[in-house]
Amino acid sequence: GQNIDQPTEMTATEGAIVQINCTYQTSGFNGLFWYQQHAGEAPTFLSYNVLDGLEEKGRFSSFLSRSKGYSYLLLKELQMKDSASYLCAVRNRDDKIIFGKGTRLHILP
Amino acid sequence: DVKVTQSSRYLVKRTGEKVFLECVQDMDHENMFWYRQDPGLGLRLIYFSYDVKMKEKGDIPEGYSVSREKKERFSLILESASTNQTSMYLCASSWDSQGTQYFGPGTRLTVL
């Protein structure tokens, strides 16, 4: 089967750092996406990892360990506008993209 | 910038009605997708298309059909709407089937 696990909800404080984890068990692996989705809006692309390691993009970084079936999204210097859901999605060996259920992140002032 | 538009943001229909949801993208993308998104269930793929007049079933195609007569337009059809099809419907497109998907704003459909 295909399974992607993320925490349902997380809370963090403005200015802090938060790490959102994603573990996956899929039929093969060809890449992992992170999307951001504000309430009532469409998901927007954040990052794509194919190789192990950390990819940094401004305040956001994404990490991948293929051997562990694990990724995380790291958000630094949190701002109120970062309150959103964060979706992890995996491309399996058939190049089918499977989405996790998303992590709803609440930022407190 | 890629733009994906959907015909309606909100739609209310009655049980048994035929419903058309339209999606248009302006970046000449080959691939287009229809998802529904429900609380606690995440995004689930209904159908996708990798070329004009081509379509493939996703994970939950029952009760839906699609049409892709032109490259830029992908329509989702509910032949006979039912209350369990009340959901947020999201259209997406991408250059290829493996790439980054660009999503439309979504249509929140309520079936009474």
Please write the string of helix (H) and strand (E) elements of chain B: EEEEEEEEEEE
Number of strands of chain A: 11
Task: Kindly estimate the percentage of residues of chain B that lie in beta strands according to DSSP.
Answer: over 45%
Percent range of helical residues of chain B: under 10%
* Contiguous uncertain segments of 5+ residues of chain A: none
Provide the low-confidence segments of chain B as ranges. none
The percentage of residues in β strands of chain A lies in over 45%
- Element order, helices and strands of chain A? EEEEEEEEEEE
Number of helices of chain B: 0
Oligomer type: heterodimer
Q: How large is the radius of gyration of chain A?
A: 13 Å
N/C terminus separation of chain A: 40 Å
Give a short summary of the structure.
With 109 residues, chain A is an all-beta fold. Chain A is built from no helices and 11 strands.
Features:
heterodimer, A: 109 residues, mainly beta, 6-stranded mixed sheet, 5-stranded antiparallel sheet, globular, B: 112 residues, 4-stranded antiparallel sheet, 11 strands, 0% helix
Model description:
The complex is a heterodimer of chains A (109) and B (112). Chain A has 109 residues and is mostly beta strands. Chain A has no helices and eleven strands. Chain A has strands spanning 3-5, 9-13, 18-25, 31-37, 44-49, 53-57, 60-65, 70-75, 84-91, 97-99, 103-108. Chain A starts with a strand and ends with a strand. The mean pLDDT of chain A is 94. Chain B has strands spanning 4-6, 10-13, 19-25, 31-38, 42-49, 56-57, 64-70, 73-78, 87-94, 102-103, 107-111. In chain B, strand 5 (42-49) and strand 6 form a beta hairpin. The radius of gyration of chain B is 13 Å and the shape is globular. Chain B starts with a strand and ends with a strand. The relative contact order of chain B is 0.33. The model of chain B has no long low-confidence stretch (mean pLDDT 93). Classes of the chains: A mainly beta (109), B mainly beta (112). The interface between A and B is medium-sized, with 19 and 18 residues.
